[in-house]
Amino acid sequence: MATDDDDDDDDDDNDDDDDTCLVGLFFTGIFSLDCTLLNVYQRRVIWQNLRLLSRMSNSFPTECLSESKAFELPLEILSDAQPLKRDIKEAFYEMAIQAFNIFIQDTFQSTWEEKHLRQLQIGLDEQLRYLEQCLEEEEEENEDMKEMEEEERKHSRDTVSQLSNLELRRYFNRIDKFLKDKKYSHCAWEIVRAELKRCFYFFYKFTALLSRK
């Protein structure tokens, strides 16, 4: 004869099974996405990361205002002047890997919610793997296109892409240096959190470029 405790255990097991199924469906959905839907995926994941950054702290501490710094986000790296979709993908990839490297540092002196930080790390990691997949697929598709004219164009595009990535690296290097100079203080992390919200929002606005190019 089943007891009430047995029924409760069965309910818990069912809940665990449901959670497992949902997680499995979530990851299957991510990795089955076609790269032609990259703009849709990027828009969703960047918006999720923005929400997580907002939830990690209730508000910006007023005592940290005096330590604020201009990190000079290179706004020109994404624009209608960018020649090809691949250049834009590479800029999104560079942003994601640099942000991921910032948020996996084991130097937090903050009151941030641990679960939101972990979710942010997972989201950035998924974003990186998806972008890597799409960039690799595009590289394979272009392997046979080696005519002289195409090579000249590719060289020109590579130069633009390298410059954009260099500017992004310099931007994140300034953020990393700021954290080190401030000895990874609570205020330093709050300032960086606010800055990366600005950075993510900038990229979020330009997800539409991935579908137009």
TrEMBL record:
SMART domains: IFabd
Keyword Ubl conjugation applies: no
Protein name, per record: Interferon kappa
UniProt GO cellular component terms: extracellular space
Database matches in InterPro entries: 4_helix_cytokine-like_core, Interferon_alpha/beta/delta
Molecular function, one GO term: cytokine activity
SUPFAM superfamilies: 4-helical cytokines (SSF47266)
Keywords: Antiviral defense, Cytokine, Disulfide bond, Membrane, Secreted, Transmembrane, Transmembrane helix
Protein family membership: Belongs to the alpha/beta interferon family.
TM ranges: 22-41
Chain intervals with Acidic residues compositional bias: 139-150
One Pfam family recorded for the sequence: Interferon
Region (Disordered): 139-158
GO biological process, one term: defense response to virus
Cellular location(s): Secreted
